[in-house]
C-alpha cells in the first residue's frame, strides 16, 4: 500500500532523512521508534506532503502512485492521514464545521456531491461515540483551549471521520493519561481493518501494549537501523537507545 | 476654488437656513473660525503622516444635498440587520428618510439631531452635552461642528434600555456629481441605562462621496454602550469618522469597528475616562484589498484611578492596500491602578500591501499595568499544512486561517444576528465559500 524507497529529505539544506526504505501493506500496523531527533516526525511530515521539507532523493508510492508532485490536500483525498503531534488551534471554526469542510472538500475532489446534512450528522454521532467524545465538545472551536488529551482524541476522531487508507499517528500517546490512552487506542483498533494500515510513531513502548504492531522499526540518524517484530519494542524499552548509538558509531 | 474656500463661503449660505439666534450657532461660528485657521490636516502633521487628504480636496464636492432621493426598502434591505427588529434612523444623501426610519419617543428618545437642535424641549440637554466632549481644536471636527444640523439623536434616561438595537444608516445615491456629508450624532446614556447601536455608511453610487462624521457619546455612571461600526463601502466613498466618548464611574463602553471597504477611511476614536472603575473596549477587524486605505487612530485618556482599557485590532491587507494603526494611551498622574492593554496584529498577504503600526504611551502614574504589542506577519505555515493535510485546498485553508485570525475579535459582539452578518462579510471579503454557514 505504502512503499518508501531510499527516501532522503532535508530542511534548510540540512539532511534529516538519509535513505529510508519501508513497505507497509494493507492490514498491517507498523511502529517507528527512535530517540529524539532521529527523524521520526520528519518522516511523518514528508509522507503527508509538508512542503517545508525537500525530498532530495528516493520516492514514496501510495497504491502504486508516486506522490512526488502531489499536494498535501490531494494526498489526504487519496487516503493519507497524519495525526499531529501538535494540532493547530483554529478559533471560530467548530470541530463539526471543520469536519464538514474537510469531508466535503474530499468528496468534491472525487467528483461527489456534498454529503447530505443528515448523513453527516449520523456519521459525526457514530464516530464521536466511538471515541467517547461529548457532543458539546464538537461545537467548540477546533483545538482552542483543548487539553493535550482532548487534542489527541480529536485527532483520532478526525481520522475516524476521514477513514484514511494509511494513518500515521505522530506521538499520539504523548500527553495522554492512561484512561485517554485506552480510549484512543481502542478507537484506533476499531478503525483498523484489512484494507487500511497504521504507522505509529512513538518514543515509548506504552502505546504498543494497546495497539499491537506487526513490525517495529528503529530510526536513528535518518535511517532505519533495525526492524523486527513487536518484541523489539520491549527490548528497546529495556535497553533504551544508548546501545544504538554505540552500535552505529562502531 | 479649493474645497476649504468653498466650505467657508458656503457657511454663509448655510446660515440662511438655520436659526442663528440659537446658542448652538455660537458654537458653529467658533468652529468655522477654527477650521478657517487650520484648514485640512496635511501629511506634515504627525497624526496625518500616513493619510493624505490631498486627492479628496481636489474633488468639487457639493456641500448641501438638494433634495431627498427616495429609496425603496427592498433595494437597500441588505444593508440593514433585517433578521431582527431594530429602531432605524436613516438618511438618504444627508436628508432624513422618515419612510425608511423607525424612531421612538416611548420612554427613550431615538430621533433626529435636527429636532434636538431646534426644539425648545431639547434645549436643556443640548446646552449640557452638545460639542462638550468633541474636540474644539481638531479642524475636521470643527468643520463638522460648523455645519452641524442633522444626524441621530439618542437619549436613554436613567435605568432604561430600548427594546431593540438602533441602526443608524447613511445612504448616498449619487444624486449630485459628488457629495460631502457631515452627519452629527449625539448619544446620551444616563445612569444605569443601556443601548446597542449599529452604524453604517453606504454609498449606492460610483460618484465620489466624502463623509466627515462626528459622534459624541456620553455614558453616565454604570451605563452600558455597545457601538458597532460597519465600514464596507464602495471604492469611491471615503469616510472620516470622529467619535468622542465621555465615560463616568463604572460605565462600560465597547466600540467595534469593522473595516472591509471604502476608498479612504480614517477612524479617530477617542475615549475620556472621567470617573473610576470604567471599562473602555475598542475592537477592530480590518480586511482590505485593491488600493484601499484605513487609518485607525485611537486615544484612551485615563484621567481617574482604577480604570481599564482594552484594545484589540486585527488587520489583513491584500493587493496594494495600506493600513495605519496608531494607539495612544495617556495615563494621568493620579490615574493609579490603571490597566491598559493594546494589541494590534496584522497579516500582509501581498508584497505590495503595507501597514504602519505605532503604539504611543504617555504614562505619568507609577502604579499601572500597561501592555502593548503589535505584530506584522504572514500566515503560519504549520497551520496551513495542518488544514491541507485534512484535505482542505490551499486557497480555502488560507481563507480559513485568516478567518480564524480575525474571528476572535467577534467574541464580544453581543447581537448574534450581527455576528453572523459580520462573519459572512468576512468570508465574502476573503473570497471563499467555506462550505458551511458561518
TrEMBL record, chain A:
| NCBIfam families found in the cross-reference section | sufC (TIGR01978)
Instruction: Provide the coiled-coil residue spans.
Output: none
MF-aspect GO terms: ATP binding; ATP hydrolysis activity
Q: Does the keyword RNA-binding apply?
A: no
Keywords attached to this Swiss-Prot or TrEMBL record, sorted alphabetically, are: ATP-binding, Nucleotide-binding
Species for this entry:
Maribacter spongiicola
Lineage here is: Bacteria, Pseudomonadati, Bacteroidota, Flavobacteriia, Flavobacteriales
User: Which named protein is this?
Assistant: Fe-S cluster assembly ATP-binding protein
Q: Which family does it belong to?
A: Belongs to the ABC transporter superfamily. Ycf16 family.
Which Pfam families does this UniProt record tie to the protein?
A: ABC_tran
Pinpoint the ABC transporter domain residues.
2-246
Automatic annotation (TrEMBL), chain B:
Biological processes annotated in GO: iron-sulfur cluster assembly
**Annotated coiled-coil segments of the chain:** none
| Limits of the SUF system FeS cluster assembly SufBD N-terminal domain | 21-168
Domain SUF system FeS cluster assembly SufBD core stretches: 175-405
Domain of life from the UniProt record = Bacteria
**In which family does this protein belong, per the annotation?**
Belongs to the iron-sulfur cluster assembly SufBD family.
**Protein name according to UniProt:** Fe-S cluster assembly protein SufD
Source species of the chain? Maribacter spongiicola
